[in-house]
Amino acid sequence: MAINGDFVSKTTLFLVGLIAFISFPAEAAVRKYQFDIQVKNVSRLCHAKPIVTVNGRFPGPTIYAREGDRVIVNVTNHAKYNMSIHWHGLKQYRNGWADGPAYITQCPIKTGNSYGYDFNVTGQRGTLWWHAHILWLRATVYGAIVIMPKQGMPYPFPKPNMEQLVVLGEWWHKDVEEIVKQGNNMGLPPNMSDAHTINGKPGPLFPCSEKHTFAMEVESGKTYLLRIINAALNDELFFAIASHNMTVVEVDAVYTKPFVTQAILIAPGQTTNVLIQANQSPGRYFMAARPFMDAPIPVDNKTATGIFQYNGIPNTVLPTLPQLPASNDTDFALSYNKKLKSLNSANFPANVPLKVDRKLFYTVGFGKDSCPTCVNGTRILASLNNISFVMPKIGLLQAHYFNISGVFRTDFPDKPPKPFNYTGAPLTANLGTAHGTRLSKIAFNSTVELVLQDTNLLTVESHPFHLHGYNFFVVGTSIGNFDPVKDPAKYNLVDPVERNTVGVPTGGWTAIRFRADNPGVWFMHCHLELHTGWGLKMAFEVEDGKGADQSILPPPKDLPPC
């Protein structure tokens, strides 16, 4: 199992880029990037196909910045598809114009056109990522965002000797957009992916993949910071490195109380930073990623692998595989997520809202629509509070800012229309699911508690939800039906984990809290692309405040036309 030597140059490239970045002056800077959306032929699993890329790279280029910097990314679209880019986890204060989801905060960038995403990195440091936010194009259009702390501000954990990006993804043999179109026409889920990848490479357990294997060379006794990103479209993933423990120190660009684990669980959209020491017998060890699914739903259960290789060890030495949790290990998933807690230090406090102005309770469900041309005469849909979201034809933020009527309504319900035993026996009936572009209006600076409740409408399943424009605190989660009398007494209001994407457990609920201090229109959706396409999404319309710096900034002049 010989691995080619390009891993040394790739790792060196990352480190050289990081060193060059760190040498920049201390004052806030303007970082400029050019993203050319272009098609490139890429070979994986014995087969070449054209894919949409940024600058011909897969994964795409890394954005480097320091807390306090201004970042300008000019995106020019040379591909046949419309395009938009989302800077996942960046709060974009008052600046939804730079957030990126197509038809939510902007109309997409058409072929031959450009748009400049211009935003400040304020009060954030750590690992985030960017990706296409239209169709399923983020299957190949994605990359990392590395935000260094302010000059002179150390990490709140032992300084690593080196850092490494580990971006997890999925790969399809065929054109992803054609697969999705075929599935939609049939009223069925599209074909699952053919492989998982680590930094765009599936690893040697797949055919024709000896040269498509990511490898990381390490030195005995040194400590490494891995910046791990789950860029997969539809799979929560376990990740581990054989014989090596990891110390979790950050999730979603927020420092955590450190804890040691043999494996991590990371949902689509989430990031996790871990420290790992090269303290084992020098050799070659597999790093591996495989899906977690504890519902009776088929997934691509194949394992992506990379190599954690001590320097001086020949490639002829066979690596050992890590012991990943079983694919349906619910106990590990629940236990792991309970260990995630905010650092809550003097420099990085957990400002959890203790008083709640607005309580929301959203049910997550599936249903079926009539579809005479589909295979079974029906098409699957998904909903929040029995509303399957309909995408508008122009950006919701534009409609909000310019008071364009008829684009959306602001009557999204605070609770489901009819209570029922949410996680009881499977329900096959469609509980009157409506279709609409309905938003929830939130007063500026109000505190919000949102409980997301999974249901057994067709089936239970875990759902990673992402809220644009905000971080939130995960104050509670459990299996079963949420009890509004008993469960809040068990909330963690001291040091709950703070993040931008959170999993709702299969047949369970998750409660989050946040302060609505960022005016604009902000998307919230399941980060499983399959479910988002079925309508599992909504948006908040956060009103302007009364202060001079509490209203939406004017739109840029090059905002893409609709």
From TrEMBL:
InterPro entries in UniProt: Cu-oxidase-like_N, Cu-oxidase_2nd, Cu-oxidase_C, Cu-oxidase_fam, Cu_oxidase_CS, Cu_oxidase_Cu_BS, Cupredoxin, CuRO_1_LCC
GO molecular function (one): copper ion binding
CDD domains, per database record: CuRO_1_LCC_plant, CuRO_2_LCC_plant, CuRO_3_LCC_plant
PROSITE patterns found in the cross-reference section: MULTICOPPER_OXIDASE1 (PS00079), MULTICOPPER_OXIDASE2 (PS00080)
Reaction it catalyzes: 4 hydroquinone + O2 = 4 benzosemiquinone + 2 H2O
Plastocyanin-like domain sequence ranges: 37-151, 165-312, 411-545
UniProt-listed Enzyme Commission number(s): 1.10.3.2
Compartments it resides in: Secreted, Extracellular space, Apoplast
Keywords: Apoplast, Copper, Glycoprotein, Lignin degradation, Metal-binding, Oxidoreductase, Repeat, Secreted, Signal
Main location: secreted
Cofactor note: Binds 4 Cu cations per monomer.
GO cellular component: apoplast
Pfam families in the record: Cu-oxidase, Cu-oxidase_2, Cu-oxidase_3
Signal peptide: 1-28
Enzyme class, broadest EC rank: oxidoreductase
One GO biological process term: lignin catabolic process
Reported cofactor(s): Cu cation
Top-level lineage group: Eukaryota
UniProt similarity note: Belongs to the multicopper oxidase family.
Function: Lignin degradation and detoxification of lignin-derived products.
Name under which the protein is recorded: Laccase
Taxonomic classification: Eukaryota, Viridiplantae, Streptophyta, Embryophyta, Tracheophyta
